[in-house]
Structures are given as structure tokens and as C-alpha cells.
Amino acid sequence: MDGPPPTPHLDLLQRAPGVAEERHASMTAVLAWSWRLLDAPSQRLMAALAQIDGEASGAIAAAMVEEPPARTAARLDALVGHGLLRPLAGGIGPRFAMPEPVREFVRLHTPPALALRLRGALRRHLIPCAQRHAAGALGPIAAELPAVLSACAQATPDGVPEDGLRLAVALRPYWDSDGPSARLRAALAAALAAADEATQRDPRAVPVVEPGLASDAHELLAYLEFESGRLEQARAHADVAVAAAERAGPLAGRDPARRARALARRAWIALAAARASHQPDVAQRALHADLDEALALARAAADTEAEARVWQQLGAHAADVLGDLPRAEACMANAQTLWQQRGDARKAQARLRNRAQLWVRMGRAAEALPVLDESEAAARAAGDWLGRIDALLSRAGAERRLRRWAAALDADRAALTLAWQRWHRHALGYALWGPGLALAHLRQPQRAARVMAFAGAFWRSQYGVLGEHDRRAMRRVRRLVQAQIGAAAADAEWARGETLTLPEAVALATQGQDGSAFES
User: Fold this and answer.
1) Beta partners for 95?
2) CA 254, CA 211: separation in Å to the nearest integer?
3) Residues 376, 362, 469, 232: is their CA dihedral positive or negative?
4) Which neighbouring-strand residues pair with 395?
5) Is 108 left (phi over 0), alpha (psi -120 to 50) or beta?
6) Considering the entire predicted model, what is its pTM?
7) Please, which residues have CB within 8 angstroms of residue 498's CB and are 6 or more apart in sequence?
8) φ and ψ of 55, to 5 deg
9) 433: helix, coil or strand?
10) Tens-digit pLDDT string for the chain (520 aa)
11) How far apart are CA 306 and CA 311, in angstroms?
């Protein structure tokens, strides 16, 4: 970083000079006075915590300063006593927050070489931890998320983009459950751009990021871009991931498992964006080719993770493109078994949810409901909020099949509220579809028309196209609304819905009949 770091909070809190004693003349002076009271190890500990944008655990702090945890814990308690840190209640183990003016002051007074060493120690600690624990409980990872995101973002400015990519890729299973992060997306893009720039400067040099890691990073970035509503960027990264896997194997040959995962991601984007079987024949053939090749590669490599991902996409393809629900359920069952064999309970539970979703479509909604309730409870216990949204949306679908419109609306509102709280665009796109039909059947035609019209406009704005299933749903809601208020009034409400903002649409869909907001 060129020049001193910015200090907006310190600048804001400056007091007018000439009042009281010197140490109270400004926030900077107060902090300088406190800083001088600290011994060198305590200053180093403060410097370590200041490298993280957010709270941090005592374990992270001890790893960064490379001293025994008990000694670090005693120093942290002393820093709390000085008013330089705040202890945080709850969570996993002792955690500490540094006020922003303090963080800015400490960064300003930390020698760049020391800051670089501390950030390196953070990455050396986090990468192996992530590799060991990514598929386990979400709580420990979520608790260290500020440190993880800081480490990923700082790696490229520190000259080691590959470290940021390794950390992000190691946590691949976590991002599936936590959803997209704008900071992570930016860090991955910056790291890959830096690696490409270095290669362009000297094509004969050893790549800064080896092709296998590049393939994994582009595949992850494709997922993050899609979930953030950036379809074309997602497709581009998926294509690069497939190409990089061609250069990732021994002696620059094909890496079959990586290519299988990249092909599965490309198929996932195609299926998730289209949502139905209206794709042109050329796109259908490409999708078939990707999935067939991916399955063969995954099996040849004996990579159960890659094979599980491919079976999931084969199931989605069978259901949404071929309309073969029994075949789709068999594919999802294969994926569930493979995830269970790998010990990944979250992914296994997700595939069981997919099977229950298929049971609903096969006329077995009553059978699916208890499975979906158990799945939602398991996701809640695991801290898997994306799993909760999926389970709630699936429950809403089951209630609609059973024509229990109030229960369906409750489940849809719960899912939409959670998606809004977490600001997950893809989940919002799905969660906005259900309320319109329930509202129409509950004889709230004005709200039904506006919410459904917005849902269609929002999906098109994010992903470009609606599937036939979605178009049928829109036509059904429109007919119900017209039957209740007439064609002219229905058209007017529909037009109003298409001009809503996203916050207005979410509020309209989640409020109760009395105008009260839904509480999850």
C-alpha cells in the first residue's frame, strides 16, 4: 500500500485543540498515550488484531503472534482492561473486537514489515485449519469469517495471491452454505487478475498460480458470480475453469477430477439460469456432453466429490429438462449416498431435500413434508441458512400441492425474510415466486399481481430468461387475479408490480393481511 493508511474514524473523532490536558486534546492523543503504556509484546498483539477487519478469537491472535495461547489470553485481558479491546459474549471461545479508531491508530503505527509478517502468520494458520474443517460444523468457520475474509483480501496486495486462493478454495464447502460474499468475490477476482498479469509479463516463467488451483478458483468464482446475479461473468469463469483443468494434470496434462467439477459447475449454471426445458437444441446438446463427460471423468479419477456433484446436476437435468422425475430421484439418491460416504452431512442433507422436492412433484407431498421439516431443523442447528431457505421453499411447494395456501404463504414468507436478511440474490429470486399464487388463492389479488409481476421482472433482470414452468405460474396467477378484479384492474396492478423496487416487493410479499411484517 502506498502512503499511510486512511484514518476516517480518527479524523471524525478529532477534538478541537487546546482543551483539557494533552492526552484528551484529540482521540489520536488519547490513543497515543495508551499506546505508550503498552510493552512491546502487547503492541505486537494489538498490531496483529488490527490486521483483521472485524472481531477475532484468542486462538487467532495467539497464532498470529506465535506464542502460547495462555500467554496471549493474559495479554488480551490486560488490553481489555486498558479499554483498547472489547470482549464479546457468546460464540465459540473468547472473542475480541477492536474499535475502529483504535484499529486505524494501530495500523498507522505498525511498521509495514511487521504487518506483513503478521498477515503471513494468519494465512499460515488459517489455510491448514480450513482444509481440516471445511466440511464440518459451520459455527467454528463462521466465527472466524472476519479473519478468513481479511486474509483472502490481503494476500494479493501482500504479493501472494495463491495463498488467498488456497484459503478460499479450501473453504469451498462452507461457501455453499453461507452464500456469496462480495468481499470474497473481489478478493478472488483480484488474485486471479494479478496471476494473469504476471504470466503476461513473462510467459516463460512458472505461473504464480498453478493451473489446478486456478481451475478451482475460477469454478468457485463462477458460483459466487451466479449467486450474486452476474450470469455472464459466471459463465465466463466456468469456461475458464474447464480450460484450466486441461493444464492441471501431471506434465501439464488433463486433471480429470478437476475438469469433472468444472464441467458440473458449468452445467449447474446453465440449468439454474434456464430453470426449464426451453433451451435451444444446441444448448441441450452441450449440456448433455458436459454431464456425460463429467461423470466419466469423475469415475475414472475415483473422485467421489466430483461424482456426487455430477449426479446432482444429472438429477436436475432429468427433472427440469427431460421431465423424468423417477430418474431424477435416482440421480439425487446416488449423490446423497456419495456425500454420506465422504462424511459431508450438509451435502447429504441437501440431496435428501432435492429428493423430497421431487416427491412433491410426483404427488407425494404429504410424504415429503416431515422430511423437509427435519431438514429445516438440521440446517438451523448447523447454522446452514441457505439450507434453511431451501427447506422452507420446499415446504411451501409441498403445501401448495396440498392446496393449503395459508401454510404455503407462511413458509414462503419465512424463506423470503431470511433471504432478504442475508441479502442473497439467487435465493431472493426463488423466494419471490411462491407468494403470488398463495395470495391469489387467499383472495388478495392486488398483492398477488404486484408480487408475481415483480418476481418475473426481477428474475429476468438477473438471469435473463424465464422457463416454461415459470411462465405457466405467472399466467395462472394472472388468470386468478383477473377473475377476482377484472382484466383492466389486473393489468394495472401487474404494471405497478413491475415498477416496484426490491425492498418494496419484499415488504409487500412478507407483510400479513393486517399490514404487519413477518418475523422469522
Assistant:
1) 57, 88
2) 10
3) positive
4) none
5) alpha
6) 0.81
7) 453, 454, 456, 457
8) -75, 165
9) coil
10) 455 666 565 555 554 444 444 434 566 777 888 899 999 999 999 999 999 999 999 999 999 999 999 999 999 999 999 999 999 876 667 899 999 989 999 999 999 999 999 999 999 999 998 888 776 777 778 888 999 999 999 999 999 999 999 999 999 888 887 767 889 999 999 999 998 888 788 777 667 788 899 999 999 999 999 988 888 999 999 999 999 888 766 544 578 899 999 999 999 998 887 654 455 565 677 888 899 999 999 999 999 999 999 999 999 999 988 889 999 999 999 999 999 999 888 899 999 999 999 999 999 999 999 999 999 999 998 888 899 999 999 999 999 999 999 999 999 999 999 999 988 888 899 899 999 999 999 999 999 999 999 999 998 888 777 777 888 999 999 999 999 999 999 999 999 999 999 999 999 999 865 444 444 4
11) 9
Query: 460: number of CA atoms within 13 Å, CB side?
Result: 10
Cα(210)–Cα(191) distance, integer angstroms:
12
Find, among 47, 57, 119, the residue nearest to 84 by Cα. 47
Q: Locate 432 and state its grid cell.
A: 419471490
The one-letter amino acid at 169:
V
Residue that has been written with the C-alpha cell 407425494 in this structure: 364
